[in-house]
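Private note to self, pasted from the team thread so I don't lose it. Backbone tokens:
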């Protein structure tokens, strides 16, 4: 565990602190909160992939381009956010 300086009050705090113990500034999400969000995003992506599998097996149902784009956007957004969250864990 290392010590860092709070950007607001310039006091030293632990780098694992969720809030600055001096001024209360939120420092970062707790490890649990990050892991929980990653878990939720992965579940959401799994659901999206299942929807995609269904979509691919539906013959002659190709006019649903909007839904397809939505799913791809959702998967992309989820994976970006998961990367971001994983970065915070380091
Ligand atoms: Zn502070």
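Design output:
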């Amino acid at each position: 565990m290392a010590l860092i300086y709070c950007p607001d009050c310039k006091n030293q705090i632990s780098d694992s602190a969720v809030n600055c113990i001096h001024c209360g500034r939120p420092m970062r999400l707790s490890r649990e909160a990050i892991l929980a969000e990653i878990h939720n995003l992965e579940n959401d992506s799994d659901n999206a992939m299942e929807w995609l599998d269904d979509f691919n097996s539906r013959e002659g149902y190709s006019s649903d381009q909007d839904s397809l784009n939505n799913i791809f956007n959702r998967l992309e957004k989820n994976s970006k956010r998961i990367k971001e969250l994983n970065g915070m864990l380091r």
